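2024-03-11 09:14:02 INFO receiving multi-entity request
2024-03-11 09:14:02 INFO entity count = two
2024-03-11 09:14:03 INFO echoing inputs for audit
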Amino acid sequence: MELILSIAIGVLATSGIWLLLRPRSFQVIVGLCLLSYAVNLFIFSMGRLTPGRPAIMPKGGFVDPTIYADPLPQALVLTAIVISFATTALFLVVLLASRGLTGTDHVDGKERDQS
Amino acid sequence: MSQHLIIAPILIPFIVGALMLLYDDRQRRAKFWLSMGSTVLQLLVAVALVLRAKAGGADGSGSIGFYLLGDWQAPFGIVLVIDRLSAMMLVLTSLLAIPSLIYASTNVSRQGPHYYSLFQFLLVGLNGAFLTGDLFNLFVFFEVLLAASYGLLLHGSGQLRVRAGMHYIAMNLTASLLFLIGVSLIYGVTGTLNMAHLANMISSIAPEDRSFLHAGVAILSVAFLVKAGSWPLSFWLPTAYMAGAAPVAAMFAIMTKVGVYSILRLTMLVFGPSAGASTGFGAGMLILLGLATVIFGLLGLLASQTLGRMAAHSVLISSGTVLAVTGFAVAGGGEALLAAALYYMIGSTLATSALFLLIEPMNRQDGGIAAMLALTADVYGVDDSEIDEVPDPGFSVPATMTVLGICFGLCLLVLAGMPPLPGFIGKVAMIQQLLQNNGLPPGLNWTLIGLLMLSGFATLVGLARIGIQTFWAQDDAPPRVLALEIIPIAVLLLVVGLMTVKAEATLRYTTSTASALHQTASYAYGVFATPRAADRETTKRRGASE
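2024-03-11 09:21:47 INFO inference complete, emitting structure
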């Protein structure tokens, strides 16, 4: 499982970084999305990968913490997802505004000379 | 009750900002006074916090206040921490915010919706970032301040702003992802996000895990360095700062300092003298990057054609200097050096902020405002009937150019480090410390001394060139400048003047700030000694019943 997760994070991050460096603003935003997926999976994996263990402990009585997963990284992932979702939405608006104002989807607002 | 004062700098702008969202922009005057009230209140709270941080402590080193959010015991909940450094940054933030607000009330706030709310949310983020003692909470406050800054940068729209804004947002989103990677790596190794807890654990980390921790902190620092405008990560900064409206850029002058503050706080706490095998980690890199930033800033300043670009590059020089000195401090360069750098940082931040406010009045030609308003009106589809009431005829200051020229000259003196203003005092104090034997390679000390001199010289040449063009070689009629645009600049320069007159007191404050930063124990253990409010209640009740 560690191997699969590492490969998944790696593939997502690689594609994300490649797209982030592309000149079209839509590619940049998709790249940022992919990169944030990779990062979210990475945060999740920092709580150690443990199958079959819930992250929520029952209330009251004696609780054996070893049979539960670390809930903190899962909470962090949730926060990170919400924040990156919001900022990506904002970026999308700016992208559309730039497209409307400049008439091109190049990140610099103008096409590079093809000479 | 008084312990709740610590959270006030976050709550006040948050409540006021949210309240103002309920009303649309027809209530602009009320909104201005509301946000003015909120900002003045923040200044008062910040001053009270400084006084408290200064007063307490058995050995006179000042006390550190802790605030347990949600009343959770320290490593499990989020803590807010107020010590001398964060109290100082809070005061600096509200000192910049008040002039910026006054300036914005003239016309900038009219260029788009919800300027005042965004401004208050920026203050929430800034104050929160200075107060928090938890890494993930720091991330959240960074996002708050960034989200508000995106809105403020794009405020008024226009092609230049949208283009610069897109680069700025893309850059900062990527930096935020790096921030998350760094934080989660640190959590994966140590199992804590509390900075004080981290400082406690650092010396007892297993050797095989240590490299992971270093990698985590390094990746985290890249995110801070992007904010601080450190050299290879700062090419977006001049364009973005130049594109923003004047009061926005004036406020952004402190955004680089948030990055510098976070690096200073984290490295001093985690890689300080008590860090075992990790002591001094990253110091060399910080020095190198800081010096490179100063060089980049001074070259950029000499190469710039417009005042906006020059001001942005002088931001880089200022933050580069403080970054380099942070590196020196981590490497064991001494408390007095760091104290001088903190003093220099306050002075130069105030001066760059004033310079950003000066740009627009200085370059204003006839019809400048009218053209700008026509442009924004076009973008927002405002009717002509509404525009008529917008250009306030105002009060035209006589001998406008003289006043502007004096303000510009004072800014120049601070930034170039000429006597008698704080730039000079800070630089002399730094050079004095560097000349003394501080145990670091003398070549490094001399490089920093040389760059301090050189950057001052470059600032002098660059800004004097612009000043001559604007004030002496100008044939046109002097621009019309509103009194409301001069007052904020005068306020900022007044604070700079106050710093000069009260130089000894300010330096004494920064000196004990620096020495408190070197003694991490009271921060690292104080958090755990803070009793929960519930426990305090029970003890009190028990005491009363007995």
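2024-03-11 09:21:48 INFO post-check: Helices of chain A lie at 2-20, 25-45, 71-102.
2024-03-11 09:21:48 INFO post-check: Chain A is about 65% helix and 0% strand.
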